[in-house]
Specification:
Strand content: 15-25%
Number of helices: 12
CATH topology of the largest domain: Aspartate Aminotransferase, domain 2
Number of domains: 2
Bound molecules: pyridoxal-5'-phosphate
Distance between the termini: 36 Å
Oligomer: single chain
Strand order of the largest sheet: 4-12-11-10-7-5-6
């Protein structure tokens, strides 16, 4: 029996090494990677710039503690501020930690305004992480079951339903923030409407609430802009990043703007590893390469190619409910549970994911080429076709 705690339904394959959008398992079998470690490997695998930067930094200093100044961390914060239009960044090591920081920031903000039990509006089907507070913010009863008592202070609203948020605003004077994934990932690749996001921004301004955007999955250029909220032309008060930020080195970031700036002082929050030299050097490199190589434009082009390609190849296939997404965040919803497609895909040399039971999720590296997009469409269309025809 394995000594690793049994917290994942693992697929029967161990990956050994990768090159670009391709990975090889320990048996020597090659796979096209349309998942990128769940939106993590932004630059694909074995990227020369990232290897060089990480290796050089490892030979200088891996870590020093936040007791000391870290120039790389300051540079990364400056860069993220420019890219987002926001002002301050707190660094941690993962998405749930970034969201914990955001939740603490919202509560702190509430108490400053004299709200004793600040409440945060969160969405149905949301995913914000697995720590107690982020699990409580997550809109998935299955994930929460058995871990009660949950952390209080969250009120649930249906996604893309402005009237529901307005109704809550009238009922509850303790609300201090709205927290939302601009594109829901785990929930099944659902995009927030542009008008809804703009209206949330306005409502938050009118009410003095913080607008918190969880960009852990949809950020870092994946949808074709650095942050998915930029499609709506808004700037939130708080935004969180993690997954793809350092291309595979663990990192998380909580960004603040407007009313959320200057709230925390020394002692209010912290992290031992957060933003260390290795992680921030990796992130700076990823941001530079995404910019230098025009990878956001590539995400838009390849995303359209994949969605259109699948649309054409599956047009006559009954059982395909929807093909949606933005840039290289793509969902193909079927009319039936299809988790077994992950295993079936392995046998044809393809890495994909299934979320929300019926949604095939694609999150390829932003370096995906046109040939790879076509190859993905060909392999996946055949897979879906075979699966649905029985
Ligand atoms: C993955 C994810 C998280 C949690 O990130 P971890 O690094 O696993 O803690 C939070 N929010 C969203 C939107 C995510 O996709």
């Amino acid at each position: 029996m394995s000594h690793v705690m049994n917290t994942y339904a693992r697929l029967p394959v161990a990956l050994s090494h990768g090159e670009g959008s391709w990975v090889t398992d320990t048996e020597g079998k090659l796979y096209l990677d349309a998942l990128a470690g769940i939106a993590v490997s932004t630059l694909g695998h074995n990227h020369p710039d990232l290897i060089m930067a990480i290796s050089a930094q490892a030979g200088r200093l891996l870590h020093s503690s936040n007791i000391y100044r870290m120039p790389q961390q300051e540079q990364l914060a400056d860069k993220l501020a420019v890219l987002s239009g926001m002002q301050e960044v707190f660094f941690c090591n993962s998405g749930c930690e970034a969201n914990e920081a955001a939740i603490k920031l919202a509560r702190f903000y509430g108490h400053r305004r004299g709200v004793d039990e600040p409440q945060i509006i969160v969405m149905e089907k949301a995913f914000h992480g697995r720590t107690l507070a982020t699990l409580s913010a997550t809109g998935n009863r299955k994930a929460q079951a058995g871990f009660e008592p949950l952390v209080p202070g969250f009120i649930r609203a249906p996604f893309n339903d402005l009237a529901a948020v307005h109704a809550l605003a009238e009922q509850n004077p303790s609300i201090v923030a709205v927290m939302i994934e601009v594109v829901q990932g785990e929930g099944g690749v659902h995009m927030a409407d542009i008008e809804y996001l703009r209206a949330l921004r306005t409502l938050c301004d009118e009410r003095g609430w913080l607008l918190i955007c969880d960009e852990v999955q949809c950020g870092m250029g994946r949808t074709g802009t650095w942050f998915a909220f930029q499609h709506a032309g808004i700037v939130p008060d708080v935004a969180t990043l993690a997954k793809g930020l350092a291309g595979g080195v663990p990192i998380g970031a909580c960004l603040a703007a407007g009313k959320a700036v200057g709230l925390f002082g020394p002692g209010n929050h912290g992290s031992t590893f957060g933003g260390n030299q290795l992680a921030t050097t990796a992130a700076l490199t990823v941001l530079n390469v995404v910019e230098r190589d025009g990878l956001m434009g590539n995400a838009i082009r390849q995303g359209a190619l994949i969605r259109n390609g699948l649309g054409a190849a599956l047009a006559e296939v009954r059982g395909v409910v929807d093909i949606r997404g933005q840039g290289l965040m793509i969902g193909i919803e079927l009319d039936r549970p299809c988790a077994e497609l992950m295993t079936r895909a392995l046998s044809i040399g393809l890495l994909i994911n299934v979320t929300a039971e019926k949604v095939i999720r694609l999150l390829p590296p932003l370096t995906f080429s046109e040939e790879e997009s076509k190859e993905l469409v060909a392999r996946l269309a055949e897979l879906i076709h075979d699966f649905l025809k029985i």
